[in-house]
Amino acid sequence: FGLLGLLWFCGIVHGTEVSGLAVNTLVLPECMSNADCGELLACIDLRCQDPCPGPCQGNATCKIHNHLPYCACDPGFSGNPFIGCQRAQASQRGVLLTGSIPSGRKVYKVERFFKVNYFAALAYCTTQGGRLASIESNDENKLIKEAINNSGIRNEQFWTSGTNLPQGQWIWMSSGEPLLPDYSDWWPGQPSNPAVERCLEFWEKDLNGYMWNDKQCMEQIYPICEYFEYDL
């Protein structure tokens, strides 16, 4: 294997020449994983780099949480940052997007064959032509529970688009709407750790039915996507 082989294995050897004498300079990798970098950087090609730009569209900014990029609407704008955010106007329900609220009948699909973290769930549902589930009424909450029950999965967890990133206010990331003050379905005592568990899941314990719970965004669980059906 030899010394040069060891140097190649541990890092990158660059050949230089000083006064006619060949000199090998060892350049070690800056990182081997994201854990070797600051929270706002990611290990890319063995270097700590800015993982943005992400797939953010108009009036949205790529932000970074725990090494991973995600999109968020700029202040004063709301909507789906993967499609494009629009300027919001005040309404009695909080934030209403002028001309950008999808019409049609909302349906939910439980993706029950794989588990991903919150940010990957956001991206996955978008690539499927939908978005990660948002809940803006008791009826929609019942529809999601029905979809989960129809999946046959018990005592598990499922992502919604609820999050208190980046500023601590709970919103539905997919729609930009805040959680309504007059409706929620949190388990008793939840959210219990919103400074660390910053994403909203459906969680069932002891076969007692599914309710909302705050969860660390990097945990891998099943996503629930929402779609809009139209009458032709």
Note the topology.
Elements (H helix, E strand, L loop, with lengths): L1 H9 L1 E7 L2 E7 L14 E3 L2 E3 L10 E6 L2 E6 L3 E4 L3 E8 L2 E4 L7 E6 L7 H10 L3 E2 L5 H14 L5 E7 L7 E2 L26 E6 L5 E6 L6 E8 L3
Describe the protein in words.
With 232 residues, this protein is mostly beta strands. It folds into 2 domains: 34-87, Ribbon (Laminin); 105-229, Mannose-Binding Protein A, subunit A (Mannose-Binding Protein A, Chain A, Roll). It is built from 3 helices and 16 strands. Strands 10, 11, 12, 13, 14, 15 and 16 form a 7-stranded mixed beta sheet that branches. A 3-stranded antiparallel beta sheet has the order 7-8-9, with no helix packed on it. A two-stranded antiparallel sheet has the order 1-2. The longest helix has 14 residues, at 138-151. This is C-type lectin domain-containing protein. Pfam families: Dumpy_DPY, Lectin_C. Residues 103-226 form the C-type lectin domain.
In a few lines, what is going on in this structure?
This protein is mainly beta and 232 residues long.
List the main descriptive attributes of the protein structure presented here.
single chain, 232 residues, mainly beta, Laminin, Mannose-Binding Protein A, Chain A, three-stranded antiparallel sheet, 37% strand, Dumpy_DPY, C-type lectin domain-containing protein, disulfide bond
Rg, Å, rounded: 23 Å
Rounded mean pLDDT is 77
How is the CATH topology of the largest domain named?
Mannose-Binding Protein A, Chain A
Mass-distribution shape: globular
CATH architecture of the largest domain: Roll
- What's the SSE pattern? HEEEEEEEEEEHEHEEEEE
By helix and strand content, what is the structural category?
mainly beta
Q: In total, how many domains does the architecture comprise?
A: 2
Q: Could you list the spans in which at least 5 consecutive residues all have pLDDT below 50? A: 1-14, 89-101
The total count of helices amounts to: 3
Helix content: 10-25%
